[in-house]
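Write out this protein's structure.
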Amino acid sequence: MSAPESIRRILVPLDGSRLAETVLPSAFAVAARTGAIVTLFHVIEHNPPESVHGEPHLETFSQAAAYLGSVAERWQHAGVPFEMHIHETKAHDVAESIAQHAVELQADLIAMATHGSGGIRGLLFGTIAQQALRRTSTPLLLLEPGEEEPRFVDGTILVPVGGSDGEHDPALPLAVLLARSLHARLHLVQVVPTVGTVGQGQRGAATFAPTATAAMLDLEGQQATRALEELRRQIDGGLTVTGEVRRGAVVEELEQAIAESGAGLVVMSTHARGTGLDGIFNGSVGARLVGRTEVPYVFLPLPRGSA
């Protein structure tokens, strides 16, 4: 999946709970800056639970229509065009329905609130959002329930980049698009390991030839600095772009960079389209960052096996 060239439609799945609605300020803020249409979306479930996040579950089309209508009425002040869509046929798989409708409705962004605060941020970010990310190819904006005002508008968007040879995260064009639309500063971060934090593939060399490994990593750091500066020049075009090369463990250094930069949004790609939880967690820097930070994320899902 490549990044969209523009944000024209934002799909906002709502389950009837106030928790899910906490994504609305950010969704409407992004829509206002990008000129996008907001689609308020609800899936009628097959054999639904009696309640969702402690509130009565919407079981019928009429209940869902009345609910989405009330949401739309409350958000008319945003001055953003919106529409409502209800998947009336009872769905056995809500996440799959969200992924399918993102394609059918030509959404450029899905916006969902994270559900839960226990264990790895509520088992990553809630069952439905987790499964939707695994199944969709549409960029997914994930926000904490307490994120009432979008800090990334006129703020800072952080993007992890990599590759001293000039390669970068496939999500970078999406981050640039969002930064331009939201009048945000773009902060690029590349992490080069130290001898003590190299990945599994380099541990043998680090153990038996630590001096040579250290020299190689120092050279990689210098190359990364030059590549990052060139990337900044390529992006520029009136956009404020800053960057830094950090040394250490990737997740820990990115976590610290998020805090130090005051980033209000992190944009990155993720290989999340696997089978079961392994497709999300196995080797995923993004999944581990979500568990350790509370900033919003935009994930660009990549097919398994892609770079």
